[in-house]
Design goal:
With 599 residues, the protein is α/β, with parallel strands linked by helices. It is 39% helix and 19% strand. The chain has helices spanning 9-19, 22-32, 42-57, 145-152, 195-206, 253-273, 292-299, 320-323, 340-352, 380-385, 413-431, 439-461, 465-489, 511-518, 520-527, 530-544, 550-560, 578-594, and strands at residues 63-67, 81-93, 96-102, 117-125, 138-141, 159-162, 190-192, 211-222, 226-233, 239-245, 282-288, 307-314, 326-330, 355-356, 362-363, 369-372, 390-396, 571-572, 575-576. Helix 2 runs antiparallel to helix 6 (253-273).
Length: 599
């Protein structure tokens, strides 16, 4: 059957929904959660084999790329091969056991890439600035474990205990060292503790109790590499991509067995409907270790030159009454935006606007969703940095994020179906915009509405409307032109007119590299505000790729986030406000020049 003459988008939604293999997708999700999918682990390979078999059983061709441990990504390397065997931690107060944790019940207990070790020591609460206080003791900290590991070795730490006040207080959090093979293991093992237990320990110490912790950690290092799984459907001059990172520890249901399983369901639907819907581009789907795999896609030229868009799925399909999440349509960086950004929003609205008002009008249903400006934190960043329009579907906050309680029962059947249908619909419409009448008018209206959104947000947030709309009007107009050209003519216009950008890297800028090479003060500064983290790690390399100057990078990023230049409450490097931010960016760019990543 060939689908022709579809009268509206809802008929297309019905076609996709009838072909989406929901039961099989949920079964695949539960299978993925049985594997300890740490980057560099054997469990990651096992999970990829699960998805590979699932795709091949449904008549899809697959290919697995192996990325060696220690592969150079520019500002980092892929992590060392590592497997967890067993771990146990016992906490005692004045010799009496008050807590016992092990990796059978709490698989996130051992910090990923930790060396083996056993011992017993007292606790010292420390920060990066005073690690020497933990000499001969356990450094209990909520600073980044890798930095504590690297900087604390010379101070003779016995072990590292990590906790987070941002994770669910009664769960055991997930953390990783992400050691590179060239980094000689310091033999300082690491484990994590629930915040509720840490607060009890603090209280007992303050009352004069002696707290000792005993640990027994067994791990293995190896060199099995990291897998990237690919399946491609159809053919055409241009390539549309979708990604989901398949890494993370057991169970990791929401993050990100959900996106990985949904992506497999999308592949099956696209394979069934590609010819019937007259799709016009090649569509390639990738299951990757987060960031490392996606950067490797560009460095190894796996994607080719004609990639025109990316949809990234990271943490989707949860039962919102359990996780407390809202589904976010995270827009592409405006400098890269074109047709995919509005098409993905149209698809979300077509699926999720399922309610009815008293008088019969369609309204938002029972699932919360919204659309927000570009934000970093997943694989869509890498596409945006490399000049490709990248959109993400993501749910946040997530109650059990990065803990041992991120289980399959937090994921809903209906929720998986809805996000699967919306995502598939997005890729179908982007590949063949002619399937829906009026799409050009929709894109024109979308970008007109986006400009109005920035005006209204400026007013509601007390930001300068003149600065925000004035800074972004050019980028919105260019995004509109690119979107219309693709839908009307099937011609893709690259977001940047410069063939060879100034930034020569393919990667984001890791904060841990800033800490080690520029110093802890720079790290603290960048990490102190979300907009600075976004600016430095993702927006800066993306816009330097297009040879923007420092001031334009800063004004573009702040305007896109609806932050008023004149109201920045920050002081650093001898300056206040926006001058401080510009000076910070100048320092980072000088550092990139020294590393020969910027010309």
């Amino acid at each position: 059957m060939v689908y022709t003459g579809l009268s509206n988008i809802h008929e297309l939604v019905d076609v996709v929904k009838k072909n989406y293999p929901l039961r099989e997708v949920y079964s695949l999700l539960t299978s993925i959660t049985k594997h300890h999918r740490i980057q560099g682990s054997s469990g990651l390979w096992s999970a990829v084999r699960e998805v590979k078999s699932f795709l091949e059983e449904n008549d899809l061709d697959t290919r697995v790329y192996s990325i060696e441990n220690g592969f150079d990504l520019g500002l980092s390397k892929t992590p060392i091969g590592w497997d967890l065997v067993y771990g146990e931690v016992v906490v005692r107060e004045n010799g009496v056991e008050i807590a016992r944790l092990d990796t059978i019940r709490h698989p996130t207990l051992v910090i990923a890439h930790s060396p083996s070790g056993f011992g017993k020591a007292s606790i010292e609460f420390v920060k990066l600035e005073n690690l020497e206080k933990a000499s001969g003791k356990i450094a209990l900290t909520n600073d980044p474990p890798y930095l504590v590991y690297k900087l604390g070795f010379k101070h003779g730490l016995e072990a590292i205990g990590w906790y987070s006040i941002q994770r669910y207080r009664d769960a055991v959090p997930y953390a990783g060292y992400f050691l590179e093979p060239s980094e000689e293991p310091s033999r300082v093992p690491g484990f994590t503790l629930p915040n509720s237990l840490v607060q009890r320990i603090m209280s007992k110490i303050s009352r004069g109790s002696r707290i000792d912790v005993e640990w027994n950690i067994d791990t293995k290092f190896h060199s099995s590499g990291l897998p990237i799984l690919e399946t491609c459907i159809g053919d055409g001059e241009y390539v549309v991509t979708a990604t989901a990172h398949i890494c993370h520890p057991i169970p990791g249901a929401h993050d990100n067995a959900s996106g990985s399983a949904v992506l497999a369901g999308i592949a099956i639907v696209l394979n069934r409907l590609y010819s019937k819907l007259g799709l016009k581009t090649r569509i390639c789907l990738y299951w990757v270790p987060e960031y490392t795999g996606t950067i490797a896609l560009f460095i190894k030229d796996i994607l080719g030159e004609n990639v025109i868009g990316n949809l990234n799925l990271d943490m989707v399909g949860s039962r919102q009454e359990v996780t407390g999440s809202t589904l976010h349509h995270i827009r592409s960086l405006l400098a890269n935006a074109g047709a995919l950004t509005p098409i993905t929003w149209l698809s979300i609205e077509a699926v999720y606007k399922s309610g009815r008002a008293f008088h019969g009008q369609r309204t938002i249903g029972t699932i919360r969703y919204d659309s927000i400006p570009y934000g970093n934190g997943s694989d869509h960043d890498v596409f945006n940095i490399n000049g490709v329009e990248g959109v993400m579907f993501n749910e946040w906050p997530s109650k059990y994020y990065h803990t041992d309680l991120d289980a399959p029962d937090t994921i809903g059947y209906r929720e998986l179906l809805d996000i699967g249908v919306a995502s598939t619909l997005s890729l179908i419409l982007y590949s063949n915009p002619c399937l829906v009448n009026g799409l050009v008018d929709y894109i024109r209206s979308y970008y007109s509405g986006l400009f109005s959104w920035y005006v209204m947000e400026s007013v509601s947030r007390g930001a300068s409307q003149k600065f925000v709309s004035g800074s972004l009007s050019k980028y919105i107009a260019l995004a509109l032109n690119r979107g219309v050209k693709w839908v009307e003519e099937g011609v893709f216009e690259k977001p940047c007119c410069i063939e060879e950008g100034c930034y020569r890297g393919y990667t984001y800028i890791p904060l841990r590299r800033i800490a080690l090479e520029l110093g802890i003060n720079y790290y603290r500064l960048v990490a102190s505000r979300k907009y600075l983290t976004l600016l430095v790690s993702s927006t800066l390399p993306a816009l330097l790729k297009k040879c923007y100057d420092t001031r334009e990078v800063v004004s573009n990023c702040l305007a896109e986030q609806v932050i008023d230049l004149d109201k920045l409450d920050i002081a650093c490097l001898g300056y206040r406000g926006v001058k401080c931010v510009e000076r910070l960016v100048e320092e980072i760019t000088r550092w990139l020049i020294k590393k020969k990543l910027l010309v």
